[in-house]
């Protein structure tokens, strides 16, 4: 069962996919936001090309676990995906994925700010998708 991880952003959507066994997540691509319909069409194409069974959407919570500014918008987007793509959609806490991503790109990859823009969102998606896979594998 392959999963798609989606990191929702105002300007970009980060996309990651799991392997068929659900053991590991891999950054796939970034979708530059255009319109709701075009964004969903792009996600649908990716889901079909990758034989996706379920979509995991990163849920932007505050550090104290309460809903963040975009939480309602993210859930509405997820519900639209569920309806249009006819796939199950789950939400997973993405609180620390952005911080981890920045640390990886700056400290470990020594990547410039401009280059980080191009990969940040898909790496964040792969980090929370991997956390989702690990949590469901370990019970």
| Basic shape | globular
Our count of domains comes out at: 1
Query: Which structural class fits the helix and strand makeup?
Result: alpha/beta
**CATH top level label:** Alpha Beta
Describe what this molecule looks like in 3D.
- There is one protein chain.
- This protein has 139 residues and is α/β, with parallel strands linked by helices.
- The protein has a single domain, classed as 2-Layer Sandwich (Nucleotidyltransferase, domain 5).
- The protein is 47% helix and 25% strand.
- The chain has four helices and five strands.
- The protein has a five-stranded mixed beta sheet, sandwiched between helices.
- Helix 3 crosses helix 4.
- It is globular, with a radius of gyration of 14 Å.
- The model has no long low-confidence stretch (mean pLDDT 86).
Topology:
Elements: E1 2-8, E2 12-18, E3 25-32, H1 36-49, E4 52-59, H2 71-85, E5 89-93, H3 97-108, H4 113-137
Helix pairs in contact: 3-4
List keywords for this structure.
139 residues, alpha/beta, Nucleotidyltransferase, domain 5, five-stranded mixed beta sheet
């Amino acid at each position: 069962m392959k999963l798609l991880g989606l990191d929702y952003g105002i300007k970009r959507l980060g996309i990651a996919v799991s392997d068929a066994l659900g053991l590991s997540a891999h950054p796939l691509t970034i979708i530059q936001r255009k319109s709701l319909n075009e964004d969903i069409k792009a996600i649908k194409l990716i889901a079909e090309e990758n034989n996706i069974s379920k979509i995991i959407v990163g849920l932007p919570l505050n550090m104290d676990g309460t809903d963040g500014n975009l939480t309602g918008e993210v859930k509405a987007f997820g519900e639209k995906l569920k309806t249009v793509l006819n796939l199950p959609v789950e939400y997973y806490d993405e609180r620390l994925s952005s911080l981890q991503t920045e640390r990886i790109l700056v400290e470990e990859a020594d990547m410039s700010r401009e280059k980080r823009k191009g990969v940040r969102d898909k790496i964040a998606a792969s980090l929370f998708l991997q956390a989702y896979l690990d949590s469901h594998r370990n019970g």
